[in-house]
Every structure is written in structure tokens, then in C-alpha cells.
Amino acid sequence: MISIPRLLTCALSPAAAIRGQPIGVPTESEDSDRACDRILGMSCAFVSDAPRIVSIATAVPSFRVSQAQVKEICQTHFQNLPGIDRLIEVLDHSEVKFRHFCFPPDYYLAPRSFQQFNQDFLQQGVALATEALQRVLGRDSVASIDQVIYVTTTGLMTPSLEAHLFNYAGLRPDVRRSPLFGIGCAGGVNALAHARDFALCYPDSRTLILAVELCGQTFQKADTSVKNLIAASLFGDGVAAVLVDGAKRAFSGPRIFSARSELIRGSLDVMGWDVTDKGLELILSPRVHCYVRDHLPGIVNRFLDENALALSDIDYCIFHPGGPRILRAYQEGFGVSPEALRFSRHTLRCYGNISSASALFVLKDVIERGRPAEGEIGLIAAMGPGFAAELALAEF
């Protein structure tokens, strides 16, 4: 763990705060002009101005299904898939024990239109989002929220869900709205970065992040491919809610002191949706874990270097639990032990992959069960359609 001086203000940059170097002094490897460019490019948010995560909550639907139940259903539903007796074992190796869904299993096996799936998404999504909102606010008023960042990749609607929530939950009429769609599993981390940017501009503001993912609504009954079997073995439903306050408002909670997004060229076909007449059909490359293993470590190392950190300085790996192959890709790419990913594994085991909400579920688990010591650092990371990485650094 690194030691971070508590009395430093914007007189030190994030990098300088760690190195103990005054912000106006060039490093040994740069001249004064480059030092000025570096200084101007840095947010001085590491110590005094960094927005804070003041509350985080989750909500899951009532239907809890075991992986054994799903395996039995898939054995019948995918019975005509060549090699099903061997392929069905993917459920045994998924590391998923339970998932939650908005409806009982029979619902997903009955013929339904894309329109009906979306209508049910809206109804169930608003209910779960309202539950998560009440939990994340506690005794605080809903009127304290200045901005709502709504994230999803599993339901289509206009107006977006936060507008519907306005009519149910009593959000202020002048609340800022920032709906995000299409970032997939990386959406929750991307939303943290947007909330951080807003709080840096408006340090007395409060942002609500709502990641609403009902992955069951995208299940394609007629698709009996291997990729759909894999999807059926992993994805679940859930909502994560996060409150991010600016520095003038918050005095406790993890600081979000840096964030980064990075796209990988030529990778549009790695992951996403094929929008068909019947709904959202999964695009999932069998090499997605290779992209994670081969690209994410370099992206992370550049990000950490910008913040004068190394992987050895990271106390908590808060990584999106995409599935067992993704977890192994993290281990191989970063050279970390399974123990370093214990919180990601716990989320995968209890909830499955909940797309954009998953990383936020992991973050909540780290805060509640990990109980990080003051000054410890968490790296929040996820990859999603694009193919892209979304990263954030939090100081507890």
C-alpha cells in the first residue's frame, strides 16, 4: 500500500502527491515546457478536489434461479445443438451458482415479441430502479440529486428510463439527464467517469448513477447456437445505484481520482448486439478473452503510469466478472492470483454477469466485505463493446 499525504491540496498533482514532488518542478526526464504541459493536463483532484462515492446500493428481482435449474432447462431447450452433451458442461464450469430474473423460467421459453420484451423491461426496470434509488438515498431526499446517469444495454425506450422514474420517484424537474446506451459491460465504469467529470465542474453537485440491466429480456428462444448457450449460462438481472458527490459536498467515501477510456481499433465485431426483427441477438467472439488478456494490461499500465502508480500499488482489483474465461484472462494478463479477484468471483457466483451493473456490484462488495483501510487504492476495470476498456481509480 502506498502512503498518501492527507494535507496536500492542489499544490501537488496526483503524481506528485505520491512521489512527494512539488507540481511546479519538472521530473528528471522532462524539461520545463513538458512539465507545464503535464501540469495543465492533470486534474488536481487527487486529494482535496476528488469527487466521492458516498453511497452504493443494489437491487435484484425476486426470482432466484440456481445454475442446476438452468442446466436442466438448457439440456432440453438446446437438445438439437450438435454436441450438446459435451457443450452443456459449460454451465458446470461457469462459476455461477445463482442468478436473479424478473420472471420465472417459463416466461423466457414462451414466444414473445421484441415489443413485449421491451414493455416488460420498462415495467420491471422502473420498479427495480426505484428500489435501488430508495436504498442508495437512505434518509436523504431525492431532491438532492442534480444529475442522473442512466446506463443500460438490455432495453430500448424513448423517453429513457430516468424520465419515467421522474414521474414515479419525484426527481426535480431541472435534474440533468445523461442516458448511456451501447457500452455494455463497461457502462458502469464509464458512468463513474462521467459522474467524476460533472462533480469536478460542479463541486457542490450530486450525481445518481443507475445501471439497469435485465439481461433475461434479451434471451432469444429461437437461437439455439453455442453463443446463446454460453449467454444462458452467465447473464442475470440486476440494478446498481451509486451516489457521487462533489468535493464541496462530500466528506467521506472513496475518492474517484482518475478515469480513462480506450478503444481498440478493428474490434467492432468482438462483442455487441445484432438488432434483428426478433430482438437483440448477441454478438460474442470466441476470442473475447484473448482481447482482454492481450490488450487490457497495456491499457492499465499506461493509465497507472499517468497517475504515478504501478500494479503493485493497487490494493483491490475491482474487475468486471465477465465469466470464468475472462477471470482467467485477468490472471494471465496481469499475473495476479485468484485471491486478487475474490470479490469479482463472489459477484459472478451469486449474481452471474449483470453487464454494466456488475463492476458496481463488485465495488459494493469490496466496500462492505473488504473494508479497505484509509488510503488503499482500488482499480475499477471493465471491457465492453467497441471493443473498449473503461477504467477508474478510487482511493478509500
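The record above closes out task 2.4. Task 2.5 opens with a second protein, given below.
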Amino acid sequence: MEQAAPIRLYLINGFLGSGKTTFMRALIDSFQGTRLGVLVNEFGSIGIDGTLVQKEGIRLVEVNRGSIFCACIKDGFIRTLKAFSQQPIDTLLIESSGMADPAGMAKILEGLASHLDRKFQYAGSICLVDCTSFADYADILMPLQNQVASADFIIVNKLDLVNAEQLEEVHKLIRHFNSDAPVYDTAYAQVPQSVLQNDLRNRGYIGEGTNAPYNRPNTYTLLSDAKLTEEQLRRFCELLSGKVFRYKGFLRSTEKGFWHVEGVGEHYSIEPASFRDGVPPQNGRIVCIAFDNSRIAAEVESAWSASVPEYAQKKTTLEQAAPMVKKPGITASVKLRTNAVPQRNACPPRLRAPRDESRTAACGGSGHDRAMDKDEKPG
């Protein structure tokens, strides 16, 4: 019996707010005519990114409540991979969460290979780097370091928000962790498919991940059916900026439909939401990610009450995910940016980052499944 062709697997990773979902949407469009599977991983209990990438004809699964590379939900990730191997797909795209450490991906696939009737062909890891914040976090967050170190192709995103000196600093830091992978500079996560086809190669990186239950961040979900003006939503973002690591989601608009809001540190964006499957969420929801467990609930509630006072005492709930398990002797610490929010300029021409060969490397729960299509889900 002839063995079935392997499923080509792409891993898309990058820190919180680096542009993974924007890149994923474009990548999905580039695979038109291909039988496609998509796995979206998020820390929060409610998925946001899956809503944005959902498209008719693709098999979509969301794995929430942690990193797919963490022991807390790793078993669920492996079961989902096995289920995908039994699906009639040619390509599988995996978007890992912003705090995921993908260093162990190759080992996972190697250990799984003998248990599959149809194997995966690992095309490689694509890492998105937010050049507005990478320099602030790279020296203190091991998952971010390993995202870059294990990458086979690196996209330096938000080029329009930094100057030449800042961009050069980002390049030096990237080469500190990874001296081999091609680097591509861009804005709005735009990368021509031809560049990926020519330059993405699996380098065979094998490493150990650092994700564990004790170092996972806390997530909080605000649920509300409030209808907000753009001014109210901007006030909410400004009050929340710098208080949480990352926030994203959808809130109802006073005009029509929903707002799509995202923020990292002091940077945020607001735009009318568009849903690929045409089906909006039942209510508004904002997922917030932070390490500080003591003040975050009060900060979110305070920002919401000040921005939407008529809904402060009703029709709004704030849900906290399972708390982070503390490991004795280890304290999570982060830096929050305090820069003013920059204004995006017109998108410049997409530029390929020059390679500097003189630079050398200095270093070296449960899954929640969303239906894969109208009436089918894995497992």
C-alpha cells in the first residue's frame, strides 16, 4: 500500500502583539486551493485570534488556557496533532501563543512520528519580532529568546514605527540569539509568498522549552454587551496601557457591529472588526495578559468604569483564569514601556534586511477545540 504524502507543517510564533494573526490571515489566503488545517493557541480561556482567521473551507482548532509547549496542556496539543494527521489536509499552520517557547517543537514531532499513519513534514518556524518592544523584553524573557533562537525565518515587523538606529539595535539582538535564519523587515506583517518559498528552510534546531505551569502569565477576560463609541474605547485603552502586558478582543460599537482592539504596553490600535466567517461573537470580550496577580483585576475594572460608567455596575463581568502556580525561589518580572503612542506612517516599501556575516551567535489546562468545519472536529 502506497504511503500517504506527509502533511507540511508551518509553525508561526512571536511575542505578544508582534503581528502573528495578521500574518496568518495573509498566509491562509496564499494557500488557496490547498486543503488547509489551522491550529490557533492562546493563553486566555476565550479565543480571539481564531475568530479572526476562521474561513470557510479550512479546518480550525483552538487550544486555549496556556502554551501548547507547556506541560499543562501539551498532551492536548499532541492529541490534536494526531487528530489532524487523520484529516484530509495537505498543510497545517500552527499559531502559538505570544508567551510560548517553541524550542521543543522538533522533539515533539520526532516523538510523535512512530504513532502516526501519516507523518508531518516540518517546513520550519517563522518568528515575528515587534521591533518597537523587542529590545525591552529580549534580555528578561526566556520564551522570547527561544522564539528567535529556534526560528528558521524571522520577520521584523512594525518597521514604520522605529528609526534606523532602533532597527539596527533589533538586528544586533536577533543575531545574538540566531546567526543563521534569514531576516525580513516589513510593516503590517506583509511578506511576499515568493520570499517564504525561497528562504524558509528547516535548520534542524533542537532545544529545550522553558514553558511550565509556574511561569505562565495570568489572563483576565472582560465580558460585556456594552456599546462603545471610539472615544470611549480610546479612553479605556489609554487607562489600561502600561498596566497589562497585552490585551485584545472585540467590543460592540454604538454605530454598527464591533470594534477590534489590540494593545501591547503603551501601543494600541482600534478599528472596525471584520469576521472572516461573517459570524460575530455573541458579546464583547477583551482578554488581558499580565504577570502581576495583585492589582490587575482592579486596574481593568477601574479603566472600564471610568470609560463606560453607565455599564460599570451591570452587564459586565471580569473572569480570571486559573492562577499561575508559583515555584519556590522564582519571581516573574517584566518591564512595561512608557513611551508615547507613535502614529503609524504610510507603509514604506518592504525591505529585505541586509545580512551582516560578521555577527555571530552568542548563545549556542486542557485544550478547547473549536469545530474544524461546520460539523467536524478532531479527536
